[in-house]
Design a protein that fits this description.
Blueprint: H1 4-51, H2 53-58, H3 69-75, H4 88-95, E1 99-101, E2 107-109, E3 118-121, E4 127-130, H5 132-145, H6 154-165, H7 171-180, H8 186-191
Antiparallel strand pairs: 1-2, 3-4
């Protein structure tokens, strides 16, 4: 007959064995989750690089296309990308806080590659989508080329974009983007040179 002390040792061994098995199972779940994330990111990145090939080669913001996380998730349903669609939120989570190095050495957030863009109209009144990053580059270019004695107002920049790019944007939108770029107002640019 087994004594109480011996029984405790057997129970202790069983408990330790169970704990070890449980711990092993948690590690396996963790590793499977890591593999799922890696696989999801790889699939999403493959779709994005396929769609944004021109931008990835040139590094020029003007080569970037509007392509939403929803579009990316739907495109994953194609056989060449694995044949299984992903939700918009899964795609967004997959690219969050991830970066890509472009051939020109620049490092950009991957989420830049799957931006749905903003709604606006063209000069014919049709709804179009644009990428704020491209509009910001236009603003930067207009301000860099302006006559320092007569800097362009936000309204004048909006009219120039409408004329040159067939995109109708409100003066306030231009003002917000200009401020994000840390350019002072036309009045302030007239007084002091811009360091951009």
């Amino acid at each position: 007959e087994m004594g109480a002390e011996a029984k405790d040792k057997i129970v202790g061994l069983t408990t330790k064995r169970e704990q070890k098995e449980e711990c092993k199972e948690h590690v396996m779940q963790f590793l499977r989750a890591c593999e799922d994330r890696r696989s999801t990111l790889l699939r999403v990145a493959t779709v994005l690089t396929h769609r944004q090939k021109a931008f990835l080669k040139s590094g020029k913001i003007f080569d970037l296309q509007c392509f939403s996380p929803e579009d990316a998730g739907a495109e994953l349903e194609l056989e060449e990308f694995g044949g299984q669609a992903l939700s918009e939120s899964t795609v967004s989570r997959a690219v969050q806080d991830k970066f890509v190095r472009l051939p020109n050495g620049q490092v950009k957030p991957i989420k830049l590659l799957c931006s749905p863009g903003e709604k606006a109209t063209n000069t014919d009144g049709q709804e179009v989508r644009y990428l704020p990053e491209i509009v910001k580059q236009w603003i930067r270019d207009y301000i860099r080329r302006e006559d320092r004695a007569h800097p362009l107002s936000d309204e004048q920049i909006a009219k120039a974009i409408e004329r040159d790019e067939d995109l109708v944007l409100a003066r306030k939108t231009i003002e917000n983007y200009r401020k994000e770029l840390e350019f002072p107002s036309a009045r302030e640019r007239k007084r002091k040179p811009t360091k951009h």
